[in-house]
Amino acid sequence: MKYYIKTFGCQMNFNDSERLRGILRSMGYEPAQSWEEADLILLNTCTIREKPDQKVYSHLGEYKKIKEKKPTALIGVCGCLAQRMGEELAHKAPVVDLMFSSYNMHQLPELISQAQAGYRAIAILEEPPEDEDKLWDFPTVRDNQFCAYVTVMKGCDKNCTYCVVPKTRGRQRSRGLESILEEVRELVQGGVREVHLLGQNVTAWGQDIGLPFEELLYRVAEVPGVERVRFTTGHPKDMTERIARAMGDIPQICEHIHLPLQAGSDRILGLMDRGYVKEEYLEKVQMLREYVKGITFSTDIIVGFPTETEEDFEETLDVLRRVRFEQVFSFKYSPRPDTPAYSMEGQVKEEVKSERMTRLLELQKSIIGDIARSYQNTEQELLLESYEGGKLMGRTRTNRWASLRGEESLLGKVVRAKVTDSRAFSMECELLEVVR
Ligand code: SAH
Ligand code: SF4
Ligand code: F3S
Fold first, then answer.
1. Is 159 helix (H, G, I), strand (E, B) or coil?
2. Is the CB of 163 inside a 6 Å radius of any atom of ligand 1?
């Protein structure tokens, strides 16, 4: 039996798919090269904006052709759209044989047997079940041998007025420290060198189990063999001085942080209910720069939130100019059903959103051009994670991709390299020495 998983959305969904692959492997399934040869097709969905929703329906339209050739093939939908839509999705898409969400991925084996027996296996729960921690008993199946995502927290207790995540992923649940450390130890034994801790609000980890996030950082970095640690996503509100100090103290923690700003205007930040103002955000950036030498930043921006004026938008551009992010992920505001912002007055016109987005991208292009130049001729540490056609690819500690000519045997090594050609979206290096 073969499976095919199509994943949309964020890194957490990506890691959920790695775990689904682990569950399927334990059931004897093997990966298919394409959906056409699969016995089970799963769509792990995202519903953060309207676009990903539409993609799911168009993919379902394509995948249903499999049933003409192979009537026993099963099609499943999981993830955030499944949780948000529930029965309605099953109704809209009769081709779906099974449905579940991030709450009950561990029930996949039972759902598959029900579907095989000819029932429609729809299990969308109102609340995460008591036994959801069973999920951690299944190992993951990953493509990247050296850098691994580890989900440490589920859900989110913030209530940003534009966001569906608290509805699709539920309240904040921190994974226990021991369970995380056990996974990290296993990963390292399997050759992993970089551990990337994941949660929608990872800096809030531990709040519900009485532990501070920095404790997790120290403990993960202590596991012998962990060369590098990253984490995503930090929330500016939970970004404390203690976390910044830990980041500076722990040599394994990379000098980069993704710290979503969303907007630069205090009025818009208030309407979003983000829990900080522009000046506080800038202070956190300054604090991180003091504790973590050479740290770089990336961010998320929403353009055209309801009532956003030209002056509000200028505040966002001002933060971009001042922080000089290495990467900016920008999104046009997309109204999501059942969120407070959906029914706010003053929705911004599509043309205005597009025009502001263009300006934002222009500005960021010039900033990243300058940043790229500043890497020229510098020495960087790379962890080489992939190899193709005589070239190795790796990331700097500051999270910039770089390529290097060399032997495949260097895969998985931490090396020192000199930057020979640095451009906005690519960087070439020359090997200086293999460090570890
Ligand atoms: N937990 C993270 C973000 C998760 S969603 C945080 O708090 O920052 C990833 C990104 O999608 C968000 O940072 C935001 O920029 C964007 N996003 C979320 N809801 C959106 C919406 N309704 N319209 C447009 N972008 C949205
Ligand atoms: Fe959504 Fe806000 Fe939670 Fe991020 S912090 S997942 S944007 S509600
Ligand atoms: Fe999308 Fe769900 Fe992630 S809505 S962004 S897949 S948490």
1. coil
2. yes
